[in-house]
Amino acid sequence: MVSVLDTDILVIGSGAAGLRAAIEAYETGCEIIIISKAPMGMNNSTFVSGGGFRAAINDLTPEEHFFDSMKVGKNINDPKLLKILSNEGEKCCIELKKYGVDIRINKEGISVGKAPTPGWALTEPMVKYIKNLGIEFYENIIITKLLKKGGRIIGAVGFDFHNNNSITIRTKTIILATGGAGALYKRTDCPLHTTGDGYSLGYHAGAKLRDMEFVQFFPIALAEAGVPPSLIGGTIAEEGKIMNALGEDIPKKYRITSRPYVLKSRDLLSRAMMIEINQGGGVDGSVLIDAREVFEKKSQKEIASEGLMKTLVEKLKALEKPFKVAPISHFCMGGLVIDENGYTGVPGLYAAGEVVGGVHGANRHGGNALTEAIVFGKRAGAAAAKNAKKNKRSKTLFEDLVEEENEKYNLLQKRESGFDAFILMNRLRETMWAQVGIIRDSISLSDAFEEIIDLRNMAYRISAADGQMVLSALELLMGLDTAEIIIRSAMERKESRGAHYRKDYPNETSSYNKPLYISKTSTGSIKIEK
Prior knowledge:
Elements: E1 2-6, E2 9-12, H1 16-26, E3 32-35, E4 52-53, H2 62-72, H3 79-94, E5 103-106, E6 109-112, H4 118-133, E7 136-138, E8 141-149, E9 152-160, E10 165-170, E11 173-176, H5 197-205, E12 209-210, E13 215-222, H6 234-239, E14 241-243, H7 250-253, H8 261-264, H9 266-278, E15 287-290, H10 292-297, H11 300-303, H12 306-315, E16 323-332, E17 335-336, E18 349-351, H13 368-388, H14 399-414, H15 421-435, H16 442-459, H17 467-492, E19 517-520, E20 526-529
Parallel strand pairs: 1-10, 2-3, 2-11, 3-7, 11-18
Antiparallel strand pairs: 4-6, 5-6, 8-9, 9-10, 12-17, 12-19, 13-16, 14-15, 15-16, 19-20
Helix pairs in contact: 1-4, 1-13, 2-3, 3-13, 5-17, 15-16, 15-17, 16-17
């Protein structure tokens, strides 16, 4: 069965960027459809975020915000995009109040009110606002191909894994807001469906990407058996002793001085911790934090949330002894190349949020992700709506364009025996963590590339008995595209900069003080250029 939908603008993704884009486009009078793999506003990177925005407020000026972010990004950020972020961040964040978001301004900056997760306090009110507007949305659908005719976007095709059927959307413009690819790594705090769909979709549609070698790892997350890998920041990270198995202070040993560590030194601290682990200074693949003095000096409310404190005190006995932590895959700095309004260069295709590259350069300053999503979600929504009004929607069903995708969906389910996509995805995640993680070199990257080739060969022989297994298979196929782009970019950047560290090229090199651009050639191969 094939369902066909029609709209002016298709928004793919229901995190902060997609929701804000949809609202802005709707207010111009356009018809909108939002497609999401997960329930609206849930199980995306916004949903699991800490709910904080970095913006020019209190004592932080737009100029300071710009230069601070550029410094952290190792000066290869797109200055045009970063200037927009620093100039418009405060206004766009406060504007969220109109949509029911409980925006709070305090000495630390801007944040959202509390909910089961802080991120849900951001997306839930926006989802309610969108539902009240009457914007159409469809959940449990994975988009696998963007459709083009005459060089222009005319639609998309995807799979409804809840109802086991294909879905085609005819549209004038598309806004990609699919998030990042953190779940391609074994150890991550990203939802497990953030597998790089948008990078693959944009790449195959003809968009350029940039900075894909830069994957950010949050340095301090719990690494104890039986507890979730919760992020550790604030007082514990700043005042606790981060140490190796010998008790040596790791930030002091590696001369890491930019604080707060988890905002300004994510790359350096993650690297130092992993070097210690790899060189035998770790404990069960992790390092330690001794926070006993912190607990003696401060109240528990000052230190961490109630849920985290319960884990630390009751399960890990952190009042009595050090506990284990390790870095975790957290954010992708790279993504689609866009202009100031989210336009990708492919007629009819716009993008916003983590799927975009350029704002953060080689390393993201903490707090900039949600601000970017809101600022550029708004801009992409406005620009896509303006473009949609100038174009007509295709009236044909373009069966020839969707036939290949429908054949793929059917074949996965008809194949009586074959490989399990879930097992192959776990192999990919293990490979990315071990070979394309915080510390890389030519050997590890080459090994990873060979593994990608093997996994691709097996992926073409997957058997998927139900909709959820088809979803896993489709995520794997697009995840392999994204993983290969990350690996190839990391191979090409023969230096160390920001979140990209190569032990065979440990220093920054002036010749690489620029982005690497990735595109698909007419023969289907990856092209990388400075």
